[in-house]
Amino acid sequence: MASTAEVALRSGSARPMPAVGVGTASPTRVPDEVTRDAVLAAIEVGFRHLDTACEVFVTSKLWCHPDLVLPSLRETLQYLQMEYVDLYLIHWPVALKPGPVTFPNKREDAVPFDLEGVWRAMEECQRLGLAKAIGVSNFAYTLLLLFWVALRWIYEQGVTPIVKSNNKERLQQNLQIFDWELTDEDRLKISQIPQRKIVNVDMGLFSQEGEFTSVNPADLDIVEE
After folding, report:
1. What InterPro entries does the entry give (predicted)?
2. Could you give the CA distance from residue 175 to residue 43 in angstroms, rounded to a whole number?
3. DSSP state at residue 95
4. Whose CA is closest to 59, among 116, 95, 19?
5. What's the pLDDT tens digit per position in 131-183?
6. 171 and 199 in contact (C-beta within 8 Å)?
7. What is the full DSSP assignment across 21-86?
8. What are residue 75's phi and psi, to 5 degrees?
9. Any idea what DSSP says for residue 169?
10. Pick from 12, 5, 2, 221: which is nearest to 119 by CA?
């Protein structure tokens, strides 16, 4: 079993976070048994960070509406049969109308994104002890998604990648980034690659060419306890 490096969180949690996590979501309906087997395989090969536990670090994400943040987390906890999540994330810097999600997203489904209101609601979740740490995902940050080199590069930037696969062999491969380093030449070449600024999947309205830009996490007023 591969060992996983850990990183410290700044948003109030004393517990370190495994540096590479595995995702459980899918844009299409996947049978429950496929997801279950993939999660068990991920734990077996060494993953200890699940993006949806004392030994397992559980991350969940929300949709961006201030009044739905706390209710959504309570619903998530009920579904997971847990008292808290280790990390609760703003899913992306875009808000959609509440309801079933369709892909690709439609322009008429977009609504104004109240980042400050959402973040205040996130802080309330943390104060209530329902989330040990809070943060953001899919916000503006320099990252690439090119297997080992990309995962290693992301890790060296102090960012935690969330990988996704239902294949046990590929899950195991995603953890093989801790016993080697990129060369200075590699880092220079990677730094010269044009960067995308939002979700790198076919999300229609929210593609790289879309009009919505992301928010730099450095601009958030993070309250540390």
Report:
1. AKR, Aldo/ket_reductase_CS, NAD(P)_OxRdtase_dom_sf, NADP_OxRdtase_dom
2. 11
3. E
4. 19
5. 888 887 776 533 334 577 888 888 898 888 888 777 777 787 788 788 778 88
6. no
7. EEE---SS---HHHHHHHHHHHHHHT--EEE---SSEEEEEE-S-GGGHHHHHHHHHHHHT-S-BS
8. -65, -40
9. H
10. 221
Contact status, residue 172 vs residue 1, Cβ threshold 8 Å: no
pLDDT in tens, 14-49: 567 777 777 766 656 677 787 778 777 877 777 766
Q: Tell me the two tokens of residue 219.
A: 């601009």
* N residues, the chain: 225
- Residue that has been written with the tokens 């593609």 in this structure: 207
CA separation for the pair 124, 12 (Å, rounded): 13
* pTM, 2 dp: 0.48
**In this predicted structure, what is the pLDDT of residue 151?**
87
Asked whether the predicted pLDDT for residue 197 surpasses 70, the reply is no
